Amino acid sequence: MAKSSVLILFRCIKDLTSDQQNQPQLREWYIYGKPDVPKASSDITSEVHSELTRLQNIGDWYSAVQLVVESGDPKAQYLAANDWYRLRRSLEIIKACGLPPSAFEVPYDSFKHQRSSSVSNSSLVTQTSANALGDQSHDLDYDFICFFLTNQRVDLYRSIDLRCEDMLLGKPGCDGILGEAKWLLDVGLSPNSNSATRAIGYRQAMEYLERCRERQGQSSAGEFHAFLAEFQRASRNFAKRQLTWFRNENIYHWLDASKPLDKVLDFLTNAYYDQSGTMKVPECLRMRELKSRKEGSALKSYRTINRHFISQQDCSEILDWIRTSL
């Protein structure tokens, strides 16, 4: 029986506030499958919750990590600080079967090893080597066709900077990321204490508001613009890491997102129904992997140009809200 085809389309910086740390892993699991680790019983889940919740409530991350390391998972010490979900899951797996999570084969790692071996002597570039998945596709439940849409780096960075500004617009306290960050602080969370407060934008906003609270709600326009610049820089750096990750995954066909939408959609539709197995991205839609000297120079000289927050007066409403609500 023929397998169904699944077309997967990713866009760089799709959601700045999503769980950025787990994005690559979720993509891997979706395509290749999750590791076959045992599911913990309700008794084990309750036991682990009891052991770790006490330490989490007092913020003793170090002791919690040592508990899991001593239980049998030495790699727990390399988890991101305050990643309580993964720490809890590691202890559940150990108690369920006596083995740490690293003892179970990750399907993605197996496929990547096979793929690396099959193309090690090939000089094909990313776009043309994307068909390498086809060599192993008979072992997957579906035939995956994977695309990655992105713009030239300077254009991408420009749109990211504007997106960060947009997330600060609206009525202060009701709309925008600052109001959400204040709510997280009000319920007792600290920046970088869990996956939500580690997310780009939330972390910077919470840290900024914490500094304002220490000064009884006082903030200068310069301090606000410094927070915005840090938010924008962290977002651009995340986009750069995304590009690096996708560039190292040769199953993705790279598409130029600046091209007309109707042409991109026509190509994707044809690619989905293509049965020849020789589908190639047309030159007019292909994102160039190597930047020109001009593009490299533009990247080196890149400077943020804000659209909404330019002068001191542009953030006065936000500063008034901070002064009266913190």
UniProtKB/TrEMBL annotation:
Ranges in coiled-coil conformation: none
Organism of origin: Kalanchoe fedtschenkoi (Lavender scallops)
GO-annotated biological processes: cytokinin biosynthetic process; tRNA modification
GO function terms (MF aspect): ATP binding; tRNA dimethylallyltransferase activity
Record-linked InterPro entries: Dimethylallyltransferase, P-loop_NTPase
Keyword Transferase: yes
Name this polypeptide is given: Uncharacterized protein
Keyword rRNA-binding carried by entry: no
Similarity comment: family membership: Belongs to the IPP transferase family.
Keywords linked to the UniProt accession: ATP-binding, Cytokinin biosynthesis, Nucleotide-binding, Transferase
